[in-house]
User: Fold this.
Amino acid sequence: MRILLLLLGCVLSAQTRQSPAAATPKTLDELSAAIQTFPTSSLYSERGQIYLDQGKAQLAESDFSAAIKLRLDDSAAWVGRGKARTLMGSYSGAIDDFDQALRINPNSASAYLERGYAYGKQGEFKRSIEDLSRSLELEPKNVVAYTLRGSAYHAVREFPRALADLNAALALRPNEVNLYLARANVYVALGEHEKALADRDKAVQLKPDSPDVYLARGGSYHQLGRHEEGLKDRTEAIRLAPARYDGWYARGSAYYLLDRYEEAVKDLERAADFAPGNQEVLAVLSKAREALAKQQAGSKTKPESNTKGDEPRKDLADQQQKVEKAATVTAPAPAAPISDPPKPAPSNAAPSATAAAVVMPKDPKSAEIHNQKGRDLIQAKKYGEAIEELTLSVQQNPDFAQAYNARGFAYYLTREYKMAVADFDKAIELNPKYENAYRNRAAAKAAAGDNAGAAADLTAANNLAKQ
Assistant:
């Protein structure tokens, strides 16, 4: 979310002809009054930019559309509307706007940057990298472009290039916390955990009041076997943000993998309270309860997944990658797929979120496998096959909110908006704090013509992002 706000803040305001007024209006009220008196493309673009900065994407899109009607040759207005559509999750429409902006002004660094970001959100990393590279040719010192291209290189596992871009960004902005966290993630992927720890330690120094930096550094401590320090960092993250699930989940997962099952269950139950539909939390909580029951019964045996000597540290690293999302600079790819609407849920689907906290899915492992296959197929643009895999996933685990969200995204991409909305509805029912599902549903509703519903969902998503 932070990188998106950063990105939005970097886009240039539209430069169109001025109002005949002696002074350019500055506030929304002044702009609205000026538009009533003498509407111009420039005034609509200025007000649209203010709405965009406030996260009011629907209003921004409306104003930029009005600006475009008055001046079809205004490249900045096309960029502005594309940005509004990106914020709404309507990436294909945004790309169309950026295409038009570049037809008018082939040297618009902003249009290339924004289109590269939108391509990344669709998982089209090659195109994303090409556009971001062109943006950097035009503006060689653009920190956002380096950051996004570095994230895209990371996504396609071109780690040396990812490091080069993030190093370039840090040279331009040496005190940017998210850049250190992003580079640390690349070091983790390369297995260079000491370097990752150094970057995360720098992030803590720069922003000691952020729970995200402690979650990230705690992961590095655990990966290096420094578990007490890792637990201390996760405890600090909880102190700073006691109502967030990820701190409780991170510490509970660490307790579980360190055989401290009673403490693990307590923390994971708190995480489940804050994120009742989160399947990762529920899966680890189930394992912790099972292990605690065996321990209390006098058994020394751990669950099968942790019997090998090196497994705890490997599992811990895997778990940490999942709980570090908040500490990572957002990559150009979607946080979760925005697929087309799902087919109707099976008749025996989905106990309530409350019931899900105590009733485990019938085959969560199989459901996760089908979910991952479905997401991979979405990236490959094989949407029909993706829907089939994701349908198998929700049949195996009717409470799998992420799979419903992914299938909804597949339906969205195939323009089956009604089915997409149905799947996003289910994902939100299972996890009312699922920010990405709200954004995806907003895009599907907007595409289906439900602008009021889309605006409501965007407001809900933005409120969740502030929590």
Observations:
- The chain has a mean pLDDT of 80.
- The radius of gyration is 23 Å.
- The chain has 25 helices and no strands.
